[in-house]
Amino acid sequence: MPVNSLQFGQEPWKYLNGLKISNDGTTPDEIIDIAVGSCLDSTGVYQIEVDAALEVSNIVSGIGGLDTGSVAANTLYKVYLVADPVKLQPVGAVISVSATAPSLPAGYSIFRLIGYVATDATSDFLLGFWTAGNSSARLFMYDAPQATTITAGGATSYTAVSLAAFVPAVDNTPVWIAYDMTPAAASRIMSLQPFGAVGDAFKATSQVTAVHLTGNALVLAKLNSGAPSIEYAWSAGGGDAVALNVAGYEWFS
């Protein structure tokens, strides 16, 4: 079988086999690697085979880089495999801001979304760790939790928190939230819920005044005008504060 080849669809629909994305932040952090594996294209017609690892660089435009333009800072990009069913050019990969229609290199006409990667303030890829296996379910965790706009939040009614810079814009995405509470009094409660939900999804209760309480909570992110979001609230006001960071998320192709 040719390296990085194309066949008519054989895998189960939406199946991802291997294709683990990796970025160890040292070799260097402007490059991500895609491991060997296979999947169907977005139409379910062609099976894309990756038999030799691929690279995507944030300083390349076109195949092996950003589909068009220059990589921006603080942006979540989609990672696509791309293939050419006519002239059988080598299978490659691109990143794109588009969730449905990346700009394809000349001659390439089929693609498949296989994951996401975020950039930092210098447009390099944020360090993180992906799982991979023989299914469409993937877990991604940032090496260090990434700060949202809530760094000292004290809202006493549910307030929306956008996660758009770090989490895919997919409704009902499970997100790991790392929280750091600083209560103004004992027995203060910090609550989290999906955006627009009715009931509390998670609660943490302080024990000692002004002593930090930290932990991780799994909360579904729902779309708020297209942005994946959760909500937070304190049971009482007056000096309470919480920092909310994105530790990671689960994604289903």
Give a nutshell description of this structure.
It is built from no helices and 19 strands.
Description:
By secondary structure, the protein is mostly beta strands. It folds into two domains: 130 residues, no CATH class; 108 residues, Jelly Rolls. It has no helices and 19 strands. The strands form four sheets. Strands 11, 12, 13, 14, 15, 16, 17, 18 and 19 form a nine-stranded antiparallel β-sheet that branches. The protein is elongated and about 70 Å long. The two termini are 26 Å apart. The relative contact order is 0.16.
Class from helix and strand fractions: mainly beta
What's the count of strands? 19
Mean pLDDT across every amino acid position: 91
- Helix percent band: under 10%
Number of domains: 2
Shape annotation: elongated
Counting copies of identical and different chains, the oligomeric state is single chain
Sequence-ordered SSE layout with sheet pairings:
Elements: E1 6-8, E2 16-18, E3 21-22, E4 31-34, E5 37-40, E6 46-50, E7 54-57, E8 76-83, E9 92-96, E10 110-118, E11 128-130, E12 137-147, E13 159-162, E14 173-182, E15 189-194, E16 202-205, E17 213-224, E18 227-234, E19 241-252
Antiparallel strand pairs: 1-6, 2-5, 3-4, 4-7, 5-6, 8-9, 8-10, 11-12, 12-19, 13-18, 14-17, 14-19, 15-16, 15-18, 17-18
